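Each record in this resource describes a single protein on a pair of labelled lines. An example record follows, reproduced without changes.
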Amino acid sequence: MNSLAVPTAAVSLQGVTKEFGKGESSTLVLRGVNLDVYYGEITLIVGQSGSGKTTLLSVAAGLLNATSGTVMVLGQDLAALSPKEQVLFRRKNLGFAFQQFNLLPALTACENAAVPLLAAGVNRHEAIHRASLLLDRLGMTHRYNALPSKLSGGEQQRVAFARALIHEPHLVIADEPTSSLDSQTGQLVMELLTSISFSPNRAVIIVTHDDRIFRFGNRIATMSDGIIDHITSHTITPSS
């Protein structure tokens, strides 16, 4: 990437607040967040528990509506979309990997990973083939046909991660994607994320406490008490 080029924001949050409850029982979790997440990069959001990281992730994903401020995702003002339009927008453009894996118990690992493709009408044979290739990259070759009940927590996390990436979304959003993984598997996951994020039409946002993966972040945004305290940045490449 030309060092003189101006990066393009895939996500832009301006003055974003999020309040839960009303009146005396209300809690202001986000207190005016300003954050840009750029195409071709991995942005890590870090901070103490209770600082608002997961709420911020949910607002950026359109899973929660901001109380005030502007949330632009892939050039779209989320507040301008109806609830149904938001669902369709997320389904087409976003990939999610949250701490609750939500795997379908009656489907194999490969079938679970292929769900977004199957929902989009992709031929089953093609969907399963693409899912198997992605699971290969995550060290799951030997577990294609295992049901979720037979998978360890780390294996379930990798299947959920594959499901988030299978449809090649423009924005990948992950909450603690390495929390159940050993160092070697966490490295595999982050190398895969780095390789897919290094693209002019894709961006990655990760909430994490795992300092082992800090070196993979192009930008690290530190949160405290519902705001972004500071952002550090450095240049990485898929091979770094």
